[in-house]
Amino acid sequence: MASTAAPRTLSRAVRRKRWPQPQSHTSARHIATAPAVEYHEPEPVFPENSPAIPPASQRRQNLRNAQPFSDFLTDTFNRQHDYLRISLTERCNLRCLYCMPEEGIQLSPKKELLTTAEIYYLSALFVNQGVNKIRLTGGEPTVRKDIIPLMQQIGSLRRNGLKEIALTTNGISLHRKLDDMVEAGLTGVNISLDTLDPHQFVLLTRRQGFDAVMKSINRVQEMNKLGAGIKLKINCVAMRGLNDHQILPFIEMTRDQDVEVRFIEYMPFGGNKWSEKKMLPYTEMLDLIRTKYPDIAQLKGGKNDTSKTWQVPGHKGRVGFITSMTHNFCGTCNRLRITSDGNLKVCLHGNAEVSLRDMLRKDHDNEPMDEAAFEALRQIELDRRKQDGFRFDGEEGWISKERELLDIIGAAVKRKKAKHAGMGQLENMQNRPMILIGG
């Protein structure tokens, strides 16, 4: 259920003394509507200048008036989707074996990718329907030039009920942008790293960059010591015969570091030459870990956790296992995905997609929407509202377009299956390369 929460901020002393203030960027913009989780002819969702944060009394009143979770984001198995993952780009500065086909990918023309204004609009629409966590992915999201102002805009949605803004990154350039991201509202970082061996790093990613990744990990930990409060996780795709010998070194990493290392079962995607022989099951990984850490114990997890979390007694950090292939967690799935070209995917392992981009641009000659285009539509809507006796019923306008967009989203969510196909079927299904999905 969406709620109005006070913005997450760092203390002034921490911001002023501990790390530099961010440089000036495009001002954050936000939805002017009150949080709404059912469609009752809301105000048009348009970016505009942020008003003052509602007083505490108003926030309490909003909580009292909160409605049931949005039907648009609830599927036929009563799963409520309050977690949205948005891919910001198809581009990446690495070429990881399991993610990018060896021959590379055909990048979409820039015109086909979502603009910053469109990403923000969709973020606001989903937050107003009850999404409280947004994760930015790619490709590699940090290569997007406007990622900081985009995060600032998304961060403004905290007053509409957004609680978490997370990032999945390879960490190559994160350390250069992390301070500004924290100021924009970043709450969590997942860094992809499949080996602690600098030489093997080059083999697995087909690029240099190990030192830069470690610098980013260290920078997150430094900032956390100063009060940043960033949830840090390291994602390692475990592959038999390639990096399974790195599992124990990663466990040792959790001894003194407040980090969760998560081992991900190797999954089939377009072009990654998946083989069941390379897939290392969760149970085998756990057996390997127990040869050195026999007292490792499982921790209690949350309802929608994708990871089974364990900890070695006495270790500061934790260990997670994402078991998509052998022990799926479909029954509690609360995630939706938007690809960088604007398609909604309700399941990572499903090939069904629906275009939100085309709906957004339908009355804009199918051209990309920038802030000026949204502002023009907003002004048209406001002018129409000023007409005496204006009624929305049956009238054409942005509100009816917004309802149509929500209907498309709702229909896609309702078609979501109880669970994705099994291992033997997944390898034969058509699906995008991982880099074009966004994880």
Automatic annotation (TrEMBL):
<keyword id="KW-0547">Nucleotide-binding</keyword>
<dbReference type="InterPro" id="IPR040064">
    <property type="entry name" value="MoaA-like"/>
</dbReference>
<keyword id="KW-0479">Metal-binding</keyword>
<comment type="pathway">
    <text>Cofactor biosynthesis; molybdopterin biosynthesis.</text>
</comment>
<dbReference type="InterPro" id="IPR007197">
    <property type="entry name" value="rSAM"/>
</dbReference>
<dbReference type="InterPro" id="IPR058240">
    <property type="entry name" value="rSAM_sf"/>
</dbReference>
<keyword id="KW-0949">S-adenosyl-L-methionine</keyword>
<dbReference type="InterPro" id="IPR006638">
    <property type="entry name" value="Elp3/MiaA/NifB-like_rSAM"/>
</dbReference>
<keyword id="KW-0456">Lyase</keyword>
<feature type="region of interest" description="Disordered">
    <location>
        <begin position="1"/>
        <end position="33"/>
    </location>
</feature>
<keyword id="KW-0501">Molybdenum cofactor biosynthesis</keyword>
<keyword id="KW-0411">Iron-sulfur</keyword>
<dbReference type="InterPro" id="IPR000385">
    <property type="entry name" value="MoaA_NifB_PqqE_Fe-S-bd_CS"/>
</dbReference>
<dbReference type="InterPro" id="IPR010505">
    <property type="entry name" value="MoaA_twitch"/>
</dbReference>
<keyword id="KW-0342">GTP-binding</keyword>
<dbReference type="Pfam" id="PF04055">
    <property type="entry name" value="Radical_SAM"/>
</dbReference>
<keyword id="KW-0004">4Fe-4S</keyword>
<dbReference type="InterPro" id="IPR013483">
    <property type="entry name" value="MoaA"/>
</dbReference>
<protein>
    <recommendedName>
        <fullName>GTP 3',8-cyclase</fullName>
        <ecNumber>4.1.99.22</ecNumber>
    </recommendedName>
</protein>
<dbReference type="InterPro" id="IPR050105">
    <property type="entry name" value="MoCo_biosynth_MoaA/MoaC"/>
</dbReference>
<dbReference type="Pfam" id="PF06463">
    <property type="entry name" value="Mob_synth_C"/>
</dbReference>
<dbReference type="InterPro" id="IPR013785">
    <property type="entry name" value="Aldolase_TIM"/>
</dbReference>
<keyword id="KW-0496">Mitochondrion</keyword>
<feature type="domain" description="Radical SAM core">
    <location>
        <begin position="76"/>
        <end position="304"/>
    </location>
</feature>
<keyword id="KW-0408">Iron</keyword>
